[in-house]
Amino acid sequence: MNTLSRIVTAQVVITFGAAAGCLFVDVVASYSALLGGLTGVLPTLYAVVRFSGQQRSARGGNGLTPLLTGELGRQAFSIALFSVVFVLVEPLNVLCFFGTFVLMQMCYGIVPLIEAMRLRRRATIPLD
């Protein structure tokens, strides 16, 4: 499993965990947390699928082009999801929504950090 897959997995687990935890507050908080998580997970999943497809295809472009188009698509998808949620969903617990969304963004730094720490620990353990 590569780092991007681990990020998506962590985001899905955190999304459902936050939604379950917010269920103790009320139903609005729970579905707000779920929507905030999905607003973070779905664009990430889009970028992962687009980037992995670009890697397999020689037609995808060279250098940073596939990466930049995937990131721009992810940002546009995020904006569209934010728009849909804020226009169509009422009532919405904004604190739970943005709190879960921020957790999704933190996964981009935390998951690679945990992976690097695991690799460092594995490199320092003697194999006697």
Summarize the structure.
With 128 residues, this protein is mostly helical.
Q: What's the gyration radius in Å?
A: 17 Å
The N- to C-terminal Cα distance equals: 28 Å
Structural class: mainly alpha
Output the helix-strand order: HHHH
User: Per the principal axes of the C-alpha atoms, what is the gross shape?
Assistant: flat
Provide the domain count: 1
Number of helices in the DSSP assignment: 4
Report the β-strand fraction as a percent range.
Answer: under 5%
Helix content: over 70%
- Low-confidence parts: none
What does this protein look like?
Helices cover 82% and strands 0% of the residues. By secondary structure, the chain is mainly alpha-helical. The protein has one domain (3-124). The protein starts with a helix and ends with a helix.
Question: Topology of this structure?
Answer:
Elements: H1 3-22, H2 27-56, H3 65-88, H4 94-124
Which features does this protein show?
single chain; 128 residues; flat; mainly alpha
